UniProtKB/TrEMBL annotation:
Protein family per UniProt: Belongs to the peptidase M10A family. Matrix metalloproteinases (MMPs) subfamily.
Species of the source: Erythranthe guttata (Yellow monkey flower)
Gene Ontology biological process terms from the UniProt entry: collagen catabolic process; extracellular matrix organization; proteolysis
Annotated binding of Ca(2+) 3, by residue: 209-210, 229, 232
Cofactor(s) the record lists: Zn(2+); Ca(2+)
Residues that bind Zn(2+) 2: 107, 255, 259, 265, 273
Pfam family, one: Peptidase_M10
Active site location: 256
Sites where the protein binds Ca(2+) 1: 232
Peptidase metallopeptidase domain boundaries: 130-300
Name the record gives this protein: Peptidase metallopeptidase domain-containing protein
Record key words, sorted: Calcium, Glycoprotein, Hydrolase, Metal-binding, Metalloprotease, Protease, Signal, Zinc, Zymogen
GO molecular function, one term: zinc ion binding
Length: 348
């Protein structure tokens, strides 16, 4: 009675422990616009480091970690894989759409791994290798706690009660669709999920890189580590926080909790598990891609039903670029067919 599962596996350790410490301003990449194979441009080496960190490019020199400034065949292939993975037009060039995505703030978890010579389809939701999940009886309860030493400097626009409220809502988004409850604990050391805000190199091999770079990262089950970059301007209310660089805390928290539960990055742009989030953007509502992925790991919350979803929510499962009208019609037919199956099974 379950729908067919279509997923990809990625490495469970997220990023190599020998982290590449890059601290560039991503807007430096703008000068690379329209560069293509054969170009030699200052800044290409930094772009190669970017693609290496997020799993698209093997190191050119594993010993010295030096990168050339040549737009070579390997970089062209990496760009094509990046475009394919994130649902962008596959041009193999640094076009405007691709550069816009590269310079967007994003999650620090890698999208895929160049060391994996064989991968599965990337059409839908993604898991870590081995499909790890929390191995407890269903329904289960997970505890979470905030670091007593690694927290933000609070302000009038963001107080501790606001922060806890944002995380509480983020956990509730996932709890509404799977039989997993989340309870805040005062015992940080023994909590299942441990949340903290850190700057730069903070000892886990996943150094943060400053404002509007990597926003946060979380590790696959059952690690429970959830780290956010303290350098960001975190916001829970864009009316109260007017900064252009403000980042919505609830949106990032909802995304990272998906990793903690076992989901990787999807190519569905509207989904919570898409890897990037622009400043002052809010994305907290789970889409079909997010829900089907997490329910394949944990089952469905008995109070959840896809019938409650609107057609617009369901259509967001597509989420790519350049779909023509015929493809859109086919997608709608498939969605309504799935709805019919759900209703039929529910009424049996």
């Amino acid at each position: 009675r379950k729908l067919p599962i279509n997923y990809t596996l990625i490495n469970p350790i997220n990023i190599s422990s020998s982290v590449i410490k890059y601290n560039h301003t991503r807007h430096e990449f703008e000068k690379l616009r329209d560069a293509s194979k054969g170009s030699i441009v200052s800044g290409i080496s930094k772009l190669k480091k970017y693609f290496n960190r997020f799993g698209y490019l093997e190191a050119e020199d594993r010993i010295s970690n030096n990168w050339s400034e040549e737009f070579d065949s390997n970089l062209e292939f990496a760009i094509a894989k990046y475009q394919e993975k994130l649902g962008l037009p596959i041009t193999r060039k640094l076009d405007s759409v691709t550069l816009s995505e590269i310079i967007s703030p994003r999650c620090g978890v890698a999208d895929q791994y160049t060391t994996m010579k064989k991968t599965y389809s990337t059409e839908n939701y993604v898991y870590f290798t081995g499909r790890p999940r929390w191995q407890r009886n269903i329904p289960m309860r997970l505890t979470y706690a905030f670091s007593p030493t690694n927290m933000l400097n609070f302000s009038d626009s963001l107080k501790m009660v606001d922060l806890k409220g944002a995380f509480g809502r983020a956990f509730a988004h996932w709890a509404s669709v799977i039989p997993v409850g989340f309870v805040e604990s005062d015992d940080y050391e023994f909590a299942d999920i441990r949340i903290g805000f850190y700057s730069g190199d903070h000892g886990d091999g996943e150094a943060f890189d400053g404002v509007l770079g990597v926003l946060a990262h979380a590790f696959s089950p059952e690690s429970g580590r959830f780290h956010l970059d303290a350098a960001e301007t975190w916001a829970v209310d864009f009316e109260a926080e007017r900064a252009d660089a403000a980042v919505d805390l609830e949106s990032v928290a909802t995304h990272e909790i998906g990793h903690l539960l076992g989901l990787g990055h999807t190519a569905v742009r509207e989904a919570v598990m898409y890897p990037s989030l622009r400043p002052r953007e809010r994305k907290v509502d789970l889409k079909v891609d997010d829900i089907e992925g997490v329910q394949a790991l944990y089952g469905s919350n008995p109070n959840f039903s896809f019938e409650a979803f609107s057609e617009s929510d369901l259509l967001s499962a597509n989420g790519g670029f350049g779909e023509d009208e015929e493809e859109g019609t086919e997608i709608r037919v498939r969605i309504w067919l799935l709805l019919f199956i759900y209703v039929f099974l529910f009424c049996m």
